[in-house]
Amino acid sequence: MTKDSGELKILVIEDNPGDFILIEDYLSEEHHALEIQRAENFKIAKAILKKTSDFDTVLLDLSLPDINNTELLVKEILSFSNETPVVVLTGYTNKDYGVKTLSWGVSDYLLKDEINASILSKSIHYSMERNKVQHQLYESEEKYRTLFDSSPLPMWVLDRNSLEFLSVNQAAVNLYGYTREEFMQMSVRDLWADDEARIEETVEENLHDFFNIKVKHYTKNRNLLYIDVQSNPILFGGREARVTQAHNITEKIKAEEKLRHSQERFKALVQDGSDLISIIDENFHYAYVSPSVKHILGVDPEKIEGRNVFDFIHREDRDKIEGKIQYLGRRKSFQLPSYRYKDGKGEWRWLETIISDLRDDPAVNGLIANSRDITKSKVQEQQLRESLERYDIVAKATSDLITDFDVEKNEFQYSNAIYDIFGYSQEGLAPSKEWWQDRIHPEDKQRVIEAAKGIYEHGQKILGIEYRFRCANGEYKYILDRSYVITDAIGKPSRIIGSMQDITERRKYINAIERSNERLREIAWTQSHVVRAPLARIMGLIELLKNQRNNLDNIEEIIDNILNSSEELDKVIRKITIKTEEEF
């Protein structure tokens, strides 16, 4: 073997001077730079190693005079050598004993009778290299243990077959809320929230391979987590295991869910909404038109994009629009006056538009136009204008009370007939719906309110109802209230026009007729029931006299009964006559 030019520092623990000299000669043959220190017994060796452990190798003789327990000797020297490799030199030829010393941690076991310079040098160098590799392995394990324990991501080691926890880091403890001791009593199945079959299948198919899977886990407090799992097969303490990294993506999933909801809202508001959203460039050309234009104006967005806005605006309305556009650059947002816009059929629709200037926003780089179709409102406005004209005429030509109720403002307007019909002065009037309802007769109030619900809940356009209304002097008058409902652009009631007719005299007359009819019904019932009873008895007794007159012994009693029934019938007839006279 080539002599090593590096310095070798050896501690020889040997009580026999001859053996020490032999060892020194063997080492000198193989190494030029050699520093050998001898310890004649265990006590000296212990003192030397306590003072310094800066040796490349320790050669230990097992037969020392001051210690008889070989196992204790080996373990003590190993503890004091501070990871320096220890090679045992002994005269014992029992190989089983030698293997036993190796299990205690020595690097090699050599018999004194079999060694030479080459064998001794090889053993020392191999022990040093093995110790170096073991030290590197230990440092690597420590490094990875540190990475495992200090990783900000939850990590654990599982038994590859049972999926029981073998080790967990602090991040996993913090995330899931279990202690390490609790984890060691669990398997990863205890964390699964759902999809157990899918996870089991993935684990089984990748028993000896890497896999990545997204799962749902429960914490100790039953909070739901979304986890991105990356798992690799390893050997852990001689067991088939998996090291797993768990990336908590709960916030990411929630953010994605919010984004999805936001996109759905955008689609509902912009793409499928009732408003037309468009982006207009500085030259007033359409850069974007929302798909809602299809059902609002009956035209595809592609046929509008790139066209000039004024190509679709009615010629008579362009001036007022151009006059409003002058506010660009001075206001961030402003509303255009209503204007007519050509739809897909070439017909004119009324639009109402709000302009927002977002030319300085790189995501938009234009004007946002939010337009709403108000054609129906415009038509109703015209109809209302015509109706009001008729209303003015009718109000002047009729004695009925005309009312106009603004639903949004909760405000009544009355014609002058309210002073004549109900006697209220200007000071005694209030325009609210509550004032009106408070003057409805208590017996009629709930019925009127329920009937009015048809306007708001079922889209009822016309309502006619009779009820009693309190006058200024506290008396009640019967009125016939006939109302017509005007709706806004989305079909909600906006105004209710009513005509209220005083039907008190007619109602009194009808009530009198109803009472008379009730009397007549009572008289008819009396005639059909009360009169028939005595009359039937009289007719029966007469029939008995007629058929049995020669054989009757109680004729006198029969005649008395006939007389009594006749008197009863007379009383009934006189009663009917009295009731008839009272009514008429």
TrEMBL record:
Record-annotated PAS domain positions: 140-210, 262-332, 380-459
Reaction equation(s) it catalyzes: ATP + protein L-histidine = ADP + protein N-phospho-L-histidine
Residues that bear 4-aspartylphosphate: D61
Domain PAC: from-to ranges: 335-386, 463-515
Entry-linked Gene3D superfamilies: 1.10.287.130, 3.40.50.2300, PAS domain
Coiled coil: 538-565
Pfam families: PAS_3 (PF08447), PAS_9 (PF13426), Response_reg (PF00072)
Boundaries of every Response regulatory domain copy: 9-127
One GO MF term attached to the UniProt entry: phosphorelay sensor kinase activity
Keywords assigned by UniProt, alphabetized: Coiled coil, Kinase, Phosphoprotein, Transferase
Class in the EC hierarchy, top level: transferase
Enzyme Commission number, as recorded: 2.7.13.3
UniProt-recorded name of the protein: histidine kinase
Native organism: Salegentibacter salinarum
